[in-house]
Design a protein that fits this description.
- This protein is 27% helix and 32% strand.
- The protein has 333 residues and is of the alpha/beta class.
């Protein structure tokens, strides 16, 4: 009991992930998760809080426990190292709140402020993560508990395809695996685009059970194939399927939405996935085995280049073609 009474000053960080909404984020530089956490540390240092303040970090509403623990542990280390604050570890923070009797409702700032006053905290840092169509928005604000005065506010745009973040959402996907994937898929980096090909998905952050639609347009006529690459690096043809054979022609100046008579419904495993689009001047042969899921590799991509070019290596014949991709993330609800 006496140890608890000595905790006279605590800064609390509460993070909550909100459901997506339609509004687009304003244009801004996107940061990785690590860059944002470090940026918040710098911001806290700039507030020039008195040294030796005891700081607690509380994570709430995060879609994956590993993600919350990672942010918490990173802040514990960085704030302790660079701001002069005394930061409680997660276990001690939980014990303190249990001693109080109840955990404040993270969606109700008033209840959190009340808890802070009871425990002798001087200020609270409220935070939330919102999944927007193209980014995560991390918002943080520091409030003085006694007066409710806003001490400072900071917003960060997080890239949804940060390998560290994706790995935390789905621990089965290793960070190195994501780095290797990017290298293998350099063909789809957008530099090869002789048709002015454009591809978009209706969102870049999806929750379990949501539907994906792909929009295509081009400045020149072309034939196309669409592949899906899942979180486990398995790749397979998804358009044209057996019902849409012969419909993979894209006329210049028109817009196609794929699929046209069904839907792509997204489910676990969670993490980063990609839609890969290849287009050519002539009809593209589609061997039967392209509908089977195969592991991505440099050798497999070289085989596909030969198929797409009609039997001649794309690197040798250099036909008129295009290859683009869309990257998105699936999260649990």
């Amino acid at each position: 009991m006496m140890a608890v009474k000595k905790l006279f000053l605590v800064t609390v960080l509460i993070l909550a992930v909100m459901v997506p909404f339609a509004a687009s984020a304003e244009a801004a530089t996107t940061l990785s998760l690590d860059e944002a956490v470090y940026g918040f540390t710098v911001y806290m240092a700039e507030l020039e809080l008195p040294g030796r303040e005891l700081t607690a970090i509380i994570m709430s509403g995060i879609p994956a426990p590993r993600l919350g623990e990672y942010i918490s542990d990173s802040l514990i280390y960085l704030l302790s190292e660079y701001t002069g604050l005394d930061v409680l570890n997660r276990q001690d923070t939980e014990r303190l709140l249990e001693w109080r009797g109840s955990l404040p409702d993270p969606s109700d700032p008033r209840s959190i402020t009340e808890a802070g006053r009871e425990l002798g905290w001087k200020q609270i840092v409220f935070g939330e993560i919102k999944a927007l169509p193209d980014i995560y928005r991390l918002s943080l604000r520091a409030v003085e508990t006694e007066t409710g005065k806003l001490l400072g506010e900071k917003n960060y745009n997080l890239t949804v395809n940060d390998p560290v973040l994706v790995n935390l959402v789905n621990p089965e996907v290793e960070v190195q695996q994501l780095v290797d994937r990017k290298t293998i898929l350099e063909l789809f980096d957008g530099k090869l685009n002789n048709f002015g090909l454009n591809m978009k998905t209706n969102k870049t952050v999806y929750y379990d059970g949501e539907d994906m639609f792909i929009t295509l347009s081009a400045k020149e006529d072309c034939f196309f194939v669409i592949y899906h690459l899942d979180v486990n690096d398995k790749m397979q043809l998804i358009y044209p399927n057996y019902l849409d054979m012969g419909k993979n022609f894209l006329r210049s100046g028109t817009t196609r939405t794929i699929p046209e008579s069904s839907y792509f419904r997204l489910h676990a495993p969670f993490g980063e996935e990609r839609i890969l689009l290849y287009a050519a001047e002539k009809p593209i042969p589609i061997p039967e085995d392209q509908y089977k899921s195969k592991s991505i590799s440099l050798d497999y991509l070289e085989t596909l280049k030969v198929i797409w070019s009609g039997g001649t290596s794309a690197s040798g014949a250099k036909p008129k073609n295009a290859a683009v991709q869309v990257i998105y993330t699936i999260l649990p609800k």
